[in-house]
Amino acid sequence: TLVDVLRTHYKLEAGTDYDLNISGHPKITLPTGHIIRFKTASRPHGLVAENISHVWCTEPGLYTDAVFERLTGRVREPGATVHQRLFEGTPEGMTAWERLANFPEGVDAQGNARRLIVETADNWRLPSGFLPKLEASLSHDPAKLVSYTKGLFMPFVKGTAYWDFRESRDVVFNSVIDP
Question: What is the pTM of this model?
Answer without folding.
Answer: 0.71
